[in-house]
Amino acid sequence: KLLILDYGSQTTQLIGRRIREFGVFSEILPGNTQITDELLTGVKGIILSGSPHSVNDADSPEPDHRIFELAAAGLPVLGICYGLQRMTQLHGGSVQASDHREFGRSRIRYNETHPLFAGIPESFVSWMSHGDSIIQAGEGFRVVAESENGIPACLAAPDKNMVGIQFHPEVSHCEHGLEILKNFALNICQARAEWSLDRILDDITEDIRRTTDGKPVLLLISGGVDSTVVAGLLLRALDPELVHLMYIDTGLMRLNETDEVVRTLESLGATHIHVVDARDRFLNPLEGVSDPEEKRRIIGDAFIEIQQHEVTARGIPEHAFLAQGTLYTDLIESGKGVGKHAAVIKSHHNVGSPLVIEKREAGLVIEPLASLYKDEVRAIGTKIGISDAVVHRHPFPGPGLAIRIPGQITREKIAILQQADDIYIRELKARGLYDEIWQAFAVLLPVRSVGVAGDAREYGYVLALRAIISRDGMTADVYPMPWDHLLEISARITNQVRQVGRVVYDVSSKPPATIEWE
Ligand code: XMP
Predict the structure, then answer these.
(1) Is-contact 381 372, C-beta < 8 A?
(2) Which residues participate in the annotated binding site for ATP?
(3) Phi, psi values for residue 198, rounded to 5°
(4) What is the atom index within ligand 1 of the atom nearest the CA of 476?
(5) Which CATH number is 409-505 given?
């Protein structure tokens, strides 16, 4: 495997993702991790990531110097951007804020061969993102490539097994980026490509069996991809009699969602599906509430209370494990410089609930997806027979439709929104647009506008449609919905949902807007 040390770059996770794409296992650790012999077991090479920091800042994160001793002794090290600059600085070179900052595409050319560029044309368009540049190479380093602006783009110290690049091969806009990472991993490090779906599945199955050791397991089901895949994995690894799946119907779910969830779980072989009809317990306290934070608080509290109560009421044994759908990306604190191997910080209703805390303290938590990226989870889901409709489902927030009805929530409004949203999503699927979109949904606005129906003036609700493209939900661009589709979808909704009189399309990006309206 390869170790990736993270100095806080937005794209560190992509490095790991790309490397796994060609079958090499990679693990991301905080940049200042002390490199112990134990950590090095099975490690064939180390990558130092980029960073929002400057190496000249007093408190910028620093790699353990042992890495460079290991390199000199034969363990290949690749520095990317900040990683290269650190490497340079620690070997007596110089790095300075440059007059010529490079952001985005930049053509580079290498003037001597290096195994990193094996099979790649001498000149190609790379992806840059740096303010500091290398002014003087570190001891033993040679400039192998330069950008069109005359800035060093690759430096290597072949005798010390170190190489660094100023550009970001992990970013998809970088030509030959994947090949460069591949050259490093497979040729320079001689890492083996053995990370395959079959292998992951076998490892996870084995791990679930070993960890739970005959004890029952409880999993809270949200209806989303992650919890459904965990359910599938548990049911595959264990006797279904041991697997308790609990789904709380908040009354704020999408149209027919509860039935669909139950059907999916049944198809996976579940025998203990606990559907908790908690609609009144959510909707009653929400009555008359319009403040978004207050809504979230009420919903969060209700989840906690109901979980606690139902686990006991339904006779789920006290010594049962709690399975969670935590992903690898949830474990890595991103974008904050030197990350701690962070606690789960997903904005999710389960975090911090007494049930989770209690189980964690008792050592009764299992997280079968904790080493996987989202697309790996999807691939596993498909492999274990979960339908595309579930595996490729858009994300849905824990508070559900409550945050898509600005202002006061009523049962009538929920029913209107469920219908309109269902038409919208079905239309996107029928038109082949759904999979191009990261998240799409409708919002029922607290506004009535005038319309005509026959001879009468009628005041109907205004419905906003949102569709965005995004990589991770942190930033998002509006999806440029083809005009004809938009017009037809709008007409379908106003024809079929009588209470909606007007449809608008939300064209805001994030930032400054958020994805949800509340
Ligand atoms: P925003 O609106 O913050 O949304 O741009 C980013 C992503 O997070 C989802 N989201 C939530 N998920 N509880 C959740 O579990 C919440 O309170 C919540 N608020 C937003 C949102 O759907 C989008 O995918």
Answers:
(1) no
(2) 222-228
(3) -60, -40
(4) 5
(5) 3.30.300.10
